[in-house]
Request: fold
Amino acid sequence: MGLELTEAYIDGLAPNAAAIKNARGLIQKRKLVQLNRTADDTLLFGECAGSGKSNYVCSADFIQPDKPVTRCSCPSRQFPCKHALAIMYAYAAGESFTVAEVPEDIASKREKIEKREEKQTQTAAQEQDPVKAAKKKATSKNALKKKVQAQLDGLDALEKLLLTLIRDGLGTIDAKTVKMINEQVKQMGNYYLTGAQNELRRLALLLAEKNNREQHYTYIIAQMTRLHALIQKGRRHLQAKLDDPELALDAESTIEEWLGHAWQLSELQEYGKMTEQAELIQLSFISYDDPGRQEYIDLGYWMEMGTSHIYRTLQYRPYRAAKHLREEDSFMEIAAVPALYRYPGDLNPRVRWDGMTTRAIKPEDIQKVREQAQRSYADIVKQVKNQLKNPLADEHPAIVIHAAEICGISSGGYAITDGSGQHMVLSTVGGVYPDTVQLLSFLPADQLRDVAVLGIFEHRMDTGELVLQPLSIVTNDTIVRLLY
Reply:
């Protein structure tokens, strides 16, 4: 068979766990009544018995291997639906497929896609016309000035609010104050300040915890500090942009995202934030609810093979649209991407890619991960502290660290040691991460010695401690995920 499909890859295409279960159930119940493939294996298609009199006609089109397209005549709003997934699972399982020609309707759809891509190419060429480009640029400048001025006005309003809270004192904050802050949260959207909107909402949520407010004072102050930093850095950046509309985007820091800019892949490529032919291995994954953003977030930690770089993939699923968006899941293979796009960031910048192929993880891949583990605990702590000095940086930097041993300590917890007396205390960080330290007691001794540990750091505001939470342990022959 020319097309290489694995169950893990198909799992990654599924919108949720229920779709996977239902698709496998269709195969077990022998609901696939017809299975076809083209001679070049670029198209899988067939029919699946449903609840009605007519079978559902479904297909999985791999004419672009890194961008498969699934189609089905069923009424499901999930993509891929369980019927298209079942077709792929059947192929991966070695089921017999009859060679057949491409159906006319799919051939027509392929032709339309090809024409659309040609038109996009022609449009891009036309936009190179000097006269049209100059007119478009002038319009863009005027729109940019208006947006920047609105953002500056929004930062002024946010600063006024913060100064009022500080002047009146946290002890005076009541339900009326929290309601006023939430009204200001809505206004931040009108000022095109989505980053400020999210952080102000987080502050409101902390202040609304009236029963535990005193316990949260340290974190409330930290959140206000973050908002203050956003105001100061954002204002300087926006003022410079207002004075010089030709000012390039800041592709080194995260300030553009904080101010609401949504990076396009073409922009990242233009600023040299793209690597060709990269391979990545996922070391950890978590999905969680972020009330500050009012979104569910699927977060993956990945290492780029051959480097020590740890990247993050982030999928945001807004509350209102969550049921229509595919939830990401743990990925257990090597992702080979033709183009890897990196967002501006610190130790763990966000990455994206448009299409990928996969392969199984080999023993040498595990060894490459272990080889990239950092060994100098002093240098690691320095890197982390340098990042955490910036209030707008990621609060939980992730690093792969070599541990000569993961051992118990007198307080009853655990620590990692480098074998020369240097150690780091392991503890669960605050927020969305479940406790992983307690799981260490279930691991055999050989998985606690001479290992690489993917961990995230946190500076505890109340005690001043710098703690490390283990997410995965890389042994000689496997990756032990403490978090899925």
About this structure: The longest strand covers residues 274-290. The two ends are 32 Å apart (CA to CA). Residues 133-139 have pLDDT under 50 and may be disordered.
